[in-house]
Protein backbone atom coordinates (compact mmCIF):
# COMPACT_ATOMS: atom_id res chain seq x y z
CA UNK A 1 0.00 0.00 0.00
CA UNK A 2 1.16 3.54 -0.75
CA UNK A 3 0.37 6.49 1.47
CA UNK A 4 1.14 9.57 -0.60
CA UNK A 5 1.55 11.88 2.41
CA UNK A 6 3.12 9.20 4.60
CA UNK A 7 2.28 8.05 8.12
CA UNK A 8 4.48 9.94 10.58
CA UNK A 9 3.65 7.91 13.73
CA UNK A 10 1.87 4.93 12.22
CA UNK A 11 1.78 2.37 9.42
CA UNK A 12 0.36 2.50 5.90
CA UNK A 13 -2.47 -0.10 5.78
CA UNK A 14 -4.13 0.70 2.47
CA UNK A 15 -4.01 3.33 -0.28
CA UNK A 16 -3.68 6.59 1.71
CA UNK A 17 -4.96 4.87 4.90
CA UNK A 18 -2.81 5.12 8.01
CA UNK A 19 -3.11 3.03 11.16
CA UNK A 20 -1.77 5.23 13.95
CA UNK A 21 0.40 4.03 16.79
CA UNK A 22 -1.30 4.40 20.19
CA UNK A 23 -1.33 8.02 21.32
CA UNK A 24 -1.40 9.53 17.81
CA UNK A 25 -4.16 10.59 15.44
CA UNK A 26 -4.83 12.45 12.17
CA UNK A 27 -4.82 11.43 8.49
CA UNK A 28 -1.03 11.06 8.49
CA UNK A 29 -0.77 10.17 12.24
CA UNK A 30 1.18 13.37 12.83
CA UNK A 31 -0.92 14.67 15.74
CA UNK A 32 -0.50 13.77 19.39
CA UNK A 33 -3.68 12.62 21.15
CA UNK A 34 -4.38 14.61 24.32
CA UNK A 35 -5.43 11.64 26.45
CA UNK A 36 -6.12 14.02 29.36
CA UNK A 37 -9.04 15.47 27.41
CA UNK A 38 -10.67 12.07 26.71
CA UNK A 39 -13.91 10.96 28.36
CA UNK A 40 -13.76 9.07 30.67
CA UNK A 41 -10.60 10.76 31.98
CA UNK A 42 -7.71 8.31 32.28
CA UNK A 43 -6.53 9.73 35.62
CA UNK A 44 -8.48 10.15 38.83
CA UNK A 45 -6.86 13.44 39.97
CA UNK A 46 -4.37 15.10 37.64
CA UNK A 47 -3.22 14.25 34.17
CA UNK A 48 -0.18 15.40 32.17
CA UNK A 49 -0.22 14.91 28.42
CA UNK A 50 3.09 13.71 26.95
CA UNK A 51 4.24 13.02 23.38
CA UNK A 52 2.27 9.88 22.38
CA UNK A 53 1.16 9.15 25.93
CA UNK A 54 0.18 10.65 29.32
CA UNK A 55 1.08 10.46 33.03
CA UNK A 56 -1.21 10.45 36.06
CA UNK A 57 -0.37 12.08 39.35
CA UNK A 58 -2.27 12.75 42.55
CA UNK A 59 -3.14 15.72 44.70
CA UNK A 60 -1.12 16.20 47.84
CA UNK A 61 -2.04 13.73 50.56
CA UNK A 62 -2.77 10.99 48.03
CA UNK A 63 -0.68 8.21 46.58
CA UNK A 64 -0.70 6.96 42.98
CA UNK A 65 -1.76 3.32 42.73
CA UNK A 66 -0.71 1.01 39.84
CA UNK A 67 -4.20 1.30 38.25
CA UNK A 68 -3.97 5.10 38.06
CA UNK A 69 -6.31 5.65 41.01
CA UNK A 70 -5.34 7.85 43.94
CA UNK A 71 -5.46 6.44 47.45
CA UNK A 72 -5.50 8.60 50.57
CA UNK A 73 -2.18 8.52 52.34
CA UNK A 74 -1.45 10.15 55.68
CA UNK A 75 2.27 9.83 55.10
CA UNK A 76 2.00 11.60 51.71
CA UNK A 77 0.23 14.54 53.32
CA UNK A 78 3.06 14.94 55.83
CA UNK A 79 5.78 14.92 53.14
CA UNK A 80 3.92 17.60 51.08
CA UNK A 81 5.02 16.50 47.56
CA UNK A 82 4.29 18.66 44.50
CA UNK A 83 3.10 15.72 42.35
CA UNK A 84 2.05 13.05 44.84
CA UNK A 85 4.17 10.24 46.22
CA UNK A 86 4.69 6.52 46.59
CA UNK A 87 5.70 4.34 49.51
CA UNK A 88 8.64 2.03 48.89
CA UNK A 89 9.43 -0.43 51.71
CA UNK A 90 7.80 1.87 54.24
CA UNK A 91 9.72 4.91 52.99
CA UNK A 92 7.86 7.81 51.35
CA UNK A 93 9.31 9.19 48.07
CA UNK A 94 7.97 12.11 46.04
CA UNK A 95 7.23 11.43 42.36
CA UNK A 96 7.69 13.40 39.14
CA UNK A 97 5.10 12.82 36.35
CA UNK A 98 7.64 12.65 33.52
CA UNK A 99 11.09 11.19 32.87
CA UNK A 100 12.15 14.68 31.79
CA UNK A 101 11.63 16.00 35.32
CA UNK A 102 13.70 15.29 38.41
CA UNK A 103 13.24 15.94 42.11
CA UNK A 104 14.73 19.24 43.19
CA UNK A 105 17.11 19.73 46.13
CA UNK A 106 14.17 19.80 48.56
CA UNK A 107 13.12 16.28 47.33
CA UNK A 108 9.48 17.51 47.10
CA UNK A 109 9.19 19.67 43.96
CA UNK A 110 10.09 18.68 40.39
CA UNK A 111 12.51 20.60 38.20
CA UNK A 112 13.04 20.29 34.45
CA UNK A 113 15.94 18.30 33.00
CA UNK A 114 17.37 20.13 29.97
CA UNK A 115 17.93 17.11 27.71
CA UNK A 116 19.47 19.39 25.05
CA UNK A 117 22.36 20.51 27.24
CA UNK A 118 22.89 17.21 29.09
CA UNK A 119 23.26 15.26 25.83
CA UNK A 120 20.34 12.92 26.68
CA UNK A 121 18.40 14.10 23.62
CA UNK A 122 18.80 12.18 20.39
CA UNK A 123 18.21 14.36 17.36
CA UNK A 124 19.14 13.13 13.90
CA UNK A 125 21.51 14.93 11.55
CA UNK A 126 20.51 18.54 10.66
CA UNK A 127 17.94 18.73 13.47
CA UNK A 128 18.33 20.84 16.58
CA UNK A 129 17.06 20.07 20.06
CA UNK A 130 14.39 22.26 21.68
CA UNK A 131 13.91 21.75 25.42
CA UNK A 132 10.38 21.78 26.87
CA UNK A 133 9.17 21.38 30.45
CA UNK A 134 9.49 17.66 31.16
CA UNK A 135 10.62 16.72 27.66
CA UNK A 136 12.19 17.93 24.38
CA UNK A 137 11.61 17.75 20.62
CA UNK A 138 13.77 17.88 17.52
CA UNK A 139 13.31 20.72 15.04
CA UNK A 140 14.94 21.26 11.66
CA UNK A 141 18.06 23.41 11.73
CA UNK A 142 17.62 27.02 10.63
CA UNK A 143 17.53 27.18 6.83
CA UNK A 144 15.79 23.77 6.60
CA UNK A 145 12.12 22.77 6.71
CA UNK A 146 10.33 19.49 7.44
CA UNK A 147 9.04 17.91 4.21
CA UNK A 148 7.64 14.51 3.30
CA UNK A 149 10.01 13.10 0.66
CA UNK A 150 10.37 9.53 -0.69
CA UNK A 151 8.28 7.86 1.99
CA UNK A 152 9.51 9.70 5.07
CA UNK A 153 9.84 13.08 6.76
CA UNK A 154 13.12 14.85 6.25
CA UNK A 155 14.67 18.25 6.87
CA UNK A 156 15.13 19.77 3.43
CA UNK A 157 17.07 22.90 2.51
CA UNK A 158 14.92 26.02 2.07
CA UNK A 159 15.72 27.76 -1.21
CA UNK A 160 15.64 31.37 -0.01
CA UNK A 161 16.28 32.62 -3.58
CA UNK A 162 12.98 31.13 -4.81
CA UNK A 163 10.98 31.94 -1.68
CA UNK A 164 12.04 35.61 -1.90
CA UNK A 165 13.02 35.53 1.78
CA UNK A 166 16.51 36.83 0.93
CA UNK A 167 17.54 40.45 1.46
CA UNK A 168 19.88 40.70 -1.53
CA UNK A 169 20.34 44.08 -3.16
CA UNK A 170 18.38 44.69 -6.40
CA UNK A 171 21.75 44.83 -8.18
CA UNK A 172 22.82 41.45 -6.80
CA UNK A 173 21.98 37.86 -7.56
CA UNK A 174 20.94 35.34 -4.91
CA UNK A 175 22.83 32.02 -4.69
CA UNK A 176 21.23 29.23 -2.67
CA UNK A 177 23.50 27.21 -0.35
CA UNK A 178 22.77 24.29 2.03
CA UNK A 179 20.84 25.83 4.93
CA UNK A 180 21.50 29.40 3.79
CA UNK A 181 22.15 31.68 0.78
CA UNK A 182 24.69 34.20 -0.57
CA UNK A 183 24.32 37.49 -2.35
CA UNK A 184 26.74 38.45 -5.12
CA UNK A 185 26.78 41.85 -6.79
CA UNK A 186 26.08 41.73 -10.53
CA UNK A 187 28.76 42.64 -13.08
CA UNK A 188 29.65 46.30 -12.93
CA UNK A 189 28.68 46.56 -9.25
CA UNK A 190 30.76 46.21 -6.10
CA UNK A 191 29.81 45.49 -2.48
CA UNK A 192 28.70 42.86 -0.01
CA UNK A 193 25.74 41.69 -2.08
CA UNK A 194 23.37 43.31 0.41
CA UNK A 195 24.79 46.68 -0.60
CA UNK A 196 25.94 47.14 -4.21
CA UNK A 197 27.19 50.32 -5.82
Plain-language structure description:
This protein is mainly beta. Among the domains are: 34-112, no CATH class; 158-196, Laminin (Ribbon). It contains 3 helices and 18 strands. It has helices at residues 74-79, 115-118, 160-163, and strands spanning 10-14, 17-20, 24-25, 31-32, 46-50, 53-57, 62-64, 70-72, 85-88, 91-94, 101-103, 110-112, 127-132, 135-140, 144-149, 152-157, 172-177, 180-185. Strands 1-2 form a two-stranded antiparallel ribbon. Its main location: secreted.
Write the layout of secondary structure elements.
Elements lengths: L9 E5 L2 E4 L3 E2 L5 E2 L13 E5 L2 E5 L4 E3 L5 E3 L1 H6 L5 E4 L2 E4 L6 E3 L6 E3 L2 H4 L8 E6 L2 E6 L3 E6 L2 E6 L2 H4 L8 E6 L2 E6 L12
Q: Which strands sit side by side, in order, in the main sheet?
A: 1-2
Principal-axis shape: elongated
Relative strand content: 35-45%
Q: Give the rounded overall mean pLDDT.
A: 85
How far apart the termini lie comes to 57 Å
Q: What is the rounded Rg?
A: 25 Å
Structural class by SSE content: mainly beta
Number-wise, the strands total 18
**Can you write the helix and strand succession as a string?**
EEEEEEEEHEEEEHEEEEHEE
**Helix coverage percent of residues?**
under 10%
Runs in which pLDDT lies below 50 for 5 or more consecutive residues are none
Main beta-sheet strand count, sense and barrel state: 2 strands, antiparallel
Helix count, per DSSP?
3
InterPro entries: EGF, EGF-like_Ca-bd_dom, EGF-type_Asp/Asn_hydroxyl_site, EGF_Ca-bd_CS, Growth_fac_rcpt_cys_sf, Nephronectin_domain, NOTCH1_EGF-like
GO molecular function, one term: calcium ion binding
Subcellular location: Secreted, Extracellular space, Extracellular matrix
Family: Belongs to the nephronectin family.
